[in-house]
Amino acid sequence: MSQHWFDRIGALAGIEREAQALLAAVPSRRLKKGAVLFRAGDEARAFLIVLDGRVTVNITGPTGREIMLYEVASGETCVQTTLAMLAGQPYEGEATVTESAEAVAIPRPVFDRLLAESEPFRAFVFASFGRRLTDVIHLLEKVAFVPIESRLAAMLLDRAGGTDQVSVTHQDLASAIGSAREVVSRRLDGLRDRGMVELARGVVTILDRKALQAIAGGAW
Questions:
Q1: Among 84, 118, 121, 196, which residue's Cα sits nearest to residue 187?
Q2: Which of 2, 47, 126, 134 is the most buried (most CB within 10 A)?
């Protein structure tokens, strides 16, 4: 028996036969790193599910300052898409593929039918929406209450994973922690001067993980 893309998502694996037929008719597709999936003001025409890889959703303010709202990883959906599909409103942010990804775009007519007729699909949509909305609330809490240096240290450790190197620009870090590039550059210089990191173009090398963990503190 051939495996469909929705069999890889636990919440959809046991979906009704009629819903399976509708989903099976929607193919997945590969997305190259750097591809823009939607921009602010675009109309939502399909419901996005990321099967693997990573998509980042940012918003840009009137001054040009950019903030990362959240990332969409394997088996996850996009809260901006859900809001736009349910409310019939245009997107307010921009989604960019930050790691080569495989994704599915369920057309609006299919999405509307599944939402009305399939309880498992409806539960999947709203559970995913709730998780993504929680991520956005946590981001607002961090921007409002956690010092920039703590957010920066936590982000470096998160991006590094089990390695000591982070391939990232100062602008990407600024967007991820809700700050300005100039501020992040100054904070990175300070961490470098204290012997915690080493800086090169597009790369931050962690030299003192324990010190960064201590600074990160409540930003985890």
A1: 196
A2: 47
Which region, left, alpha or beta, applies to residue 151 given φ > 0 means left and ψ of -120 to 50 means alpha?
Answer: alpha
In three-state secondary structure terms, 177 is: helix
Q: What are the start-end ranges of the E strands in the chain? A: 28-31, 36-38, 46-60, 66-72, 76-77, 94-107, 165-167, 197-200, 203-206
Q: Residue 2: what pLDDT?
A: 52
Give the range of the structural domain holding residue 52, as residue numbers without chain letter. Answer: 5-144
- For residue 45 the two structure tokens come to 């025409």
**Domain edge (last residue) among 91, 119, 144:** 144
Q: Are residues 157 and 107 in the same domain?
A: no
Number of domains in the chain: 2
In this structure, the answer to whether residues 180 and 190 fall within a common structural domain is yes
**Domain boundary at 117, 144, 171, which?**
144
Q: Are residues 52 and 160 in the same domain?
A: no
For the chain, the distance separating the N- and C-terminal CA atoms, rounded to the nearest angstrom, is 43
pLDDT per position as a tens digit, 109-138: 999 999 999 999 999 999 999 988 888 888
C-alpha closest to that of 37 among 24, 52, 49, 23: 49
